[in-house]
Amino acid sequence: MAGPFGAQSTTDEVLAGVNLSGKRILVTGVSAGLGVETARTLAAHGAQVVGAARDLAKARTATEPVRAQAANGGGIELVELDLASLKSARACADGLVADGRPFDLVIANAGVMACPKGTTADGFETQFGTNHLGHFVFVNRIAGLMGPGARLVNLSSAGHRFSDVDLDDPNFEHTPYDEFTAYGRSKTANVLFAVEFDRRHKDKGVCATAVHPGGIQTELGRYMTEEIRAALLANIAASQQASGGPAFSWKTISQGAATSVWAGVVGTADAVGGHYCEDCHVAEIVADASIREGVKPYAVDPDRAKALWAKSEELVGERF
Fold first, then answer.
1. What does pTM read for this prediction?
2. Who has the most CB within 10 Å: 40, 169, 196, 284?
3. How far apart are CA 41 and CA 27, in angstroms?
4. Mean local confidence (pLDDT), 211-237
5. pLDDT in tens, 19-54
6. Under CATH, what is the fold of the domain 11-223+251-313?
7. In b/e form, how buried is each residue of 100-112, taking b as 16+ CB within 10 angstroms?
8. CB–CB of 38/27 below 8 Å?
9. Separation between Cα atoms, residue 282 and residue 300, nearest integer Å
């Protein structure tokens, strides 16, 4: 496997010497943060990037560095996608399918984190509905554009450790709402979706993986108050100390996006397919709740992945 890379590696370091000319790559959430940086480095290495965003005006401004640094035939075009609306997800996907041009890589980057209790346009709990169900419908509808050698990269998080998915009460109708429990459910769903997508598509040479970008200060944390943020960091610090791990430190946005491009371009398909990656390597399965590295067993359980897929089809009213 190419490397060595680690927690401090940047996108440009990971893609050094890589020519993506002729590659077509879709990235969701290109109006800020990791999505913009991911699109920038891919276009700078020659890829034609399709950037999806809810607010196209914001995305046009945010992606000016992508256009400015595009090289070797690289560039970016924008499409409208509101993942909190299945109507929007279907319309965007259908437009791409009608266009007919294939994708070599799809990076499901967009998401929300630790927001107050709410619902999407379709009545789903906001984080599960946006982070998982919106991408579930969108990605499955464009899956036919992904041929042999293509990859799907779902952005998950170490936050998947907060909670397994709840297939009996996904919308907190009978469970007291907690913003981090909801976030954890959605991030676990991102991993499980990759596990089952990989199983379903590997025979045609398409692989899927999930990644944890690391702790990055981006717009994703805009709903967290200073008190909530301080409590979260204190919890992480205590966990790191208890496990003997290194002290927590923020990553830069370029370091945060590095694992996405590593898993999508550099790591071998056989290595990353059906797995969870962090710090530019495939993570180990770790059951110990006090350890901050690795992936929880429930997040990569193939039977759990199949069950979530079936529940997701039931919720969105569509079979894939």
1. 0.91
2. 40
3. 12
4. 65
5. 999 999 999 999 999 999 999 999 999 999 999 999
6. Rossmann fold (3.40.50)
7. eeebbbbbbbbbb
8. yes
9. 12
Residues classed as catalytic: 156, 183, 187
Domain residue spans of the chain: 11-223+251-313
What is the arithmetic mean of pLDDT over 63-87?
A: 98
Q: Judge contact between 193 and 137, C-beta under 8 A.
A: no
Name the residue among 143, 94, 106 with its Cα closest to residue 30: 106
DSSP per-residue letters across 220-253: GGTT--HHHHHHHHHHHHHHHHHHTPPPP-PBPH
Residue 26 is inside which H or E element, if any? strand 24-28
Each residue of 240-277: pLDDT tens digit?
Answer: 555 556 665 679 999 999 999 999 999 999 999 999 99
Which residue type does 116 have? Answer: P
Rounded Cα–Cα distance for residues 289 and 162 (Å)? 9
In this predicted model, what pLDDT tens digit does every residue of 77-117 receive, in sequence order?
999 999 999 999 999 999 999 999 999 999 999 999 989 99
Residue pair 47/11 in contact (Cβ under 8 Å)? The answer is no
d(CA 107, CA 126): 20
Q: Look up tokens 């969108």; give the residue.
A: 138
Note the Cα 59 to chain centre separation in Å: 18
Are 32 and 112 in contact by the 8 Å Cβ rule? The answer is: no
The pLDDT value recorded for residue 233 is 57
Could you give the 3-state DSSP secondary structure of residue 207? strand
